[in-house]
Design a protein that fits this description.
- This protein is of the alpha+beta class.
- It has 2 helices and 8 strands.
């Protein structure tokens, strides 16, 4: 997965972030290669910290990610059409704020967060900021 990292300023803090699409490959019952996990991943790192947040949106029933159906960075929850574009800085900020609100920080090594659990909070933050 190749990403272009961008800079986000939040107060005095500087973050670097990138979004990309990834597949986990495996084998079917006959040993033939197949994709077993399709996902969109938002990676955020705070400058001066060794920690890394990987906010992962996995495809699944009622959960769509960019895999020919959506644009790169697009995630949609099927039951209510809730949508985020992970390439928009405002969306990244909303997800970062929601993750921080839930206690996820940058003090440890890499941390993986289920992005679907942050979706509603991020959407509320986006609506509140207009």
């Amino acid at each position: 997965m190749r990403r272009r990292y961008r800079r986000l300023l939040v107060g005095a803090d500087v973050y670097y972030w990138g979004a990309g699409h990834a597949h986990v490959r495996g084998q079917d019952d006959t040993g033939r290669p197949q994709t077993i996990d399709c996902r969109e991943v938002l990676t955020v790192r705070r400058e001066g910290s060794s920690g890394l947040l990987n906010i992962v949106f996995r495809a699944g029933p009622g959960r769509l990610v960019a895999d020919g159906l959506l644009h790169d960075g697009g995630v949609v929850r099927g039951d209510d059409d809730a949508y985020l574009n992970l390439h928009r800085p405002g969306v990244v900020r909303a997800l970062l704020d929601e993750a921080s609100h839930r206690g996820h920080g940058f003090d440890a090594g890499p941390v993986e967060i289920d992005g679907w659990e942050l979706l509603d909070g991020a959407l509320e933050r986006l609506t509140a900021t207009g």
